[in-house]
């Protein structure tokens, strides 16, 4: 069975940026996603289209097909008073938007009462290198199609 629209795919992956491993699936805990529903970044989803179990591939994803380009307008200065307790440079914090959604950001610098933060995704602007092995491909269940994502055994509950 090949990877096409609406297939549920299991794969092992290693993500490397500038020769450094940024992320990888744990042994026995593959990434499970639903093809064609933007569950994963577009460049990787496109490269996997048509592949089959056992296929191994190396995929280079440019920023526009990954997490987008960096936008310096997304670097902002906040007041120290907006933070509780200690601030750790390099750490990820979460802001709540007016619509209730949660937006992650990274603290870049603290100077006096000013905290410089970056709302760009950490991998924005980066060329991503994926080493991928396809472990399993199956049809999605009607429920998975309805939800637009894969359900692997007990990995999430639905109310
Ligand atoms: Zn679901």
UniProtKB/TrEMBL annotation:
Reactions it catalyzes: [protein]-peptidylproline (omega=180) = [protein]-peptidylproline (omega=0)
One of the protein's GO biological processes: protein refolding
The enzyme's E.C. designation: 5.2.1.8
Pfam families: FKBP_C (PF00254)
Sequence ranges assigned to domain PPIase FKBP-type in this UniProt record: 6-103
Entry GO CC: cytoplasm
Enzyme class at the top of the EC tree: isomerase
Keyword Cytoplasm in annotation: yes
Key words, A-Z: Chaperone, Cytoplasm, Isomerase, Rotamase
The keyword Cell membrane appears for this protein: no
Localisation per UniProt entry: Cytoplasm
Transmembrane segments: none
Sequence similarity: Belongs to the FKBP-type PPIase family.
Name this protein carries in UniProt: Peptidyl-prolyl cis-trans isomerase
Organism: Deinococcus grandis
């Amino acid at each position: 069975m090949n990877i096409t629209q609406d297939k549920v795919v299991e794969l092992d992956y290693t993500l490397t940026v500038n020769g450094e491993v940024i992320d990888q699936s744990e042994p026995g805990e593959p990434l499970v996603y639903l093809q064609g529903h933007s569950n994963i970044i577009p460049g990787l989803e496109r490269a996997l289209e048509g592949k089959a179990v056992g296929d191994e591939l190396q995929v280079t994803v440019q920023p526009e097909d990954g997490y987008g380009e960096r936008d310096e307008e997304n670097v902002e200065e906040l007041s120290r008073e907006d933070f509780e307790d200690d601030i750790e440079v390099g750490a990820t914090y979460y802001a709540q938007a007016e619509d209730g959604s949660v937006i992650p950001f990274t603290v870049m610098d603290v100077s006096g009462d000013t905290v410089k933060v970056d709302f760009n995704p950490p991998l924005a602007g980066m060329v991503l290198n994926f080493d991928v092995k396809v472990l399993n491909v199956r049809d999605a269940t009607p429920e998975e199609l309805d939800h637009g994502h894969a359900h692997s055994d007990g990995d999430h509950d639905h109310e």
